[in-house]
Amino acid sequence: MQSRNTIHVAGADGELGASIARGLLEMKNLHPNLYNISIHAGIHHKTIKTSNMLTERNDVSIVEVDPINQSELVVDSLKKASKLLLLVDPLSGEVTRKDALAFAKGYINAAKEAGVEHIVFPTPFAKLIVPCSPPLTPTDETDKNGDMECISPYRDQFESIELLLRENFQPSQVTILRYPGVLNQHFLYFARYISEESKIPLIDNPHVIFECCDVSDVVRAICHILYSPVQRHGGKEYKITGPHLLTNNEISAKASLALGREIRTDFLPIKQLRQAFLDVTHDKEEVAYLLDLWGLQGQIGAARKVQVTRDLEMITGGTGMGLRKFFEKNRSTFSTDI
């Protein structure tokens, strides 16, 4: 970072992007040698939500960008950036299945034109072992003619983004960070369900083995990569996982121990799981994204490699948060009193 000293966080509209920007600022405050590195948070447009999450941080510059319709402005915003975090976050409310690939493509083209040195791309989708893709997880979404929506699932679009990065940049310029096991995040959506029913809704496959990681660990890994020299992580592909693989019984056992009451698993067909999400959020795009993640976890079985890695420890020097600790930390969220 000799000629450029800015990290640009794309997709900072949502909670994940804002958490990464805050994490970068916290690391900067802890390490004086990082004082000259600027942090830019790229958002689609300013809202009360983004203002509350970001504008109170004096050392984070908010940059309004539209990579789909105004790519030239994105180029200008990236000319001082040495590193780009290409965050495509459907949970932010700013990215949908119709424009996720276009959003990423706009940023990729702008980064190439601006001469960005290092692109970090986080993806929640694990690499498939088999060459063919599994079928789209059924979501029971139909258009007015009764046909299934002909929109590529998020998983396919994230794979296309990876391909675009490899086509446009040297391997040493790109870092892929996979985090396929964000069960903790899903359980927060079902906090009321778990509190009232003392059951954890899971996809109806009692034999599936789950990877499990916490979003805070993903944020920590991303921040370490962005502050590290390009040579340390460029050209590498990581997979962030928690310390253990978990069966359905182990999930319920850890939740029961942490919450101090019996918590059982509730196996739901995909349509019922979709309705459970819709009961929490009415955003169909958000639900489609979450179901894509559940589909990978529960539908394709041996088509993906389920494993525990030590990548988080290698990147950050620390281990990840286990599921029991997560429930203990968020005990009030899953309390029967809410």
UniProtKB/TrEMBL annotation:
Pfam families: NmrA. It comes from the Eukaryota. InterPro entries: NAD(P)-bd_dom_sf (IPR036291), NmrA-like (IPR008030), NmrA-like_oxidored (IPR051164). SUPFAM superfamilies: NAD(P)-binding Rossmann-fold domains. Keywords: NADP. Residues 5-280 form the NmrA-like domain. Belongs to the NmrA-type oxidoreductase family. PANTHER family: NITROGEN METABOLITE REPRESSION PROTEIN NMRA FAMILY MEMBER, NMRA LIKE REDOX SENSOR 1-RELATED. This is 11417_t:CDS:1. It comes from Acaulospora morrowiae.
